[in-house]
């Protein structure tokens, strides 16, 4: 059993909640536990860890990442961040350092990410009903560890643009429906790309 702040990790690195959360941890059981949306935009507070419990539907709202945010769950099978009616971009970040761990992400009608610069770690993430994964422009680091999609990318996958530094794609399962490019390197350039122990399946795409 390892510790992470006031949380515990079991032997399988699943997050276990204590009775009390730390000052920088926010337990999210409904949309109301996030900062109040302003014109349908939820701007996260800096240096906060948002602990997702259950299926949290933000509807047509979107999320803007602040400095050093984490979005975590206890199990990606049970904890999901969903934007059920959003047709725009669900999560936007500019030059931020962000960790997402042990949670499912779902945006069936829109785009999941728009990330410009910064560092993003996606660890043990399940992509469930995602139309477009989104664009990663000039990122310093994007790490995908033990992530999975099961026929859930319906329009487009990860699109890279600009001058990117480090991209790590390790131990993942990526399955797309229809004619979908799961990873589109586009015109991007990279200093380092590591791709290991993944499975990629697209019915008529690549």
Q: Topology, pairings included?
A:
Elements: E1 2-4, E2 7-9, E3 15-16, E4 25-28, E5 41-43, E6 49-52, E7 55-57, E8 62-64, E9 69-73, E10 80-82, E11 89-94, E12 97-101, E13 104-116, E14 119-123, E15 126-137, E16 141-145, E17 148-161, E18 163-170, E19 173-176, E20 183-184, E21 189-196, E22 199-202
Parallel strand pairs: 4-6, 5-8, 6-9, 7-10, 8-11, 9-12, 10-13, 11-13, 12-14, 13-15, 14-16, 15-17, 16-18, 17-19, 17-20, 18-21, 19-22
Antiparallel strand pairs: 1-2, 2-3
Sequence stretches where pLDDT stays below 50 over 5 or more residues:
1-12
What class, by secondary structure content? Answer: mainly beta
Q: Work out the number of β strands.
A: 22
What overall geometry do the principal axes of the alpha carbons give?
globular
Termini Cα gap = 40 Å
- Provide the helix percentage: under 10%
Main beta sheet: 11 strands, parallel
Portion in beta strands: over 45%
Question: Count of helical segments?
Answer: 0
Mean pLDDT: 89
The rounded Rg comes to: 16 Å
What is the chain-wise order of helices and strands?
EEEEEEEEEEEEEEEEEEEEEE
């Amino acid at each position: 059993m390892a510790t992470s702040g006031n949380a515990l990790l079991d032997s399988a690195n699943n997050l276990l909640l204590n009775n009390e959360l730390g000052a920088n941890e926010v337990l999210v059981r409904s949309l109301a536990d996030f900062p109040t949306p302003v014109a349908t935009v939820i701007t996260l507070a800096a240096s906060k860890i948002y602990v997702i419990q259950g299926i949290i539907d933000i509807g047509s709202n979107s999320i803007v990442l602040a400095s050093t945010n984490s979005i975590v769950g206890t199990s990606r099978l049970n904890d999901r961040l969903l934007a059920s009616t959003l047709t725009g971009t669900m999560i936007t970040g500019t030059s931020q350092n962000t960790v997402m761990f042990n949670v499912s992400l779902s945006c069936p009608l829109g785009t999941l990410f728009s990330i410009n610069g910064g560092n993003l770690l996606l660890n043990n993430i399940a992509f469930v009903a995602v139309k477009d994964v989104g664009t990663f422009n000039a990122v310093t680091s994007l790490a995908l560890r033990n992530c999975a999609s099961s026929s859930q990318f319906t329009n487009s996958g990860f699109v890279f643009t600009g001058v990117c530094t480090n991209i790590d794609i390790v131990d993942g399962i990526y399955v797309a429906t229809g004619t979908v490019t799961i990873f589109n390197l586009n015109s991007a350039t990279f200093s380092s790309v590591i791709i290991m122990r993944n499975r990629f399946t697209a019915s008529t795409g690549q």
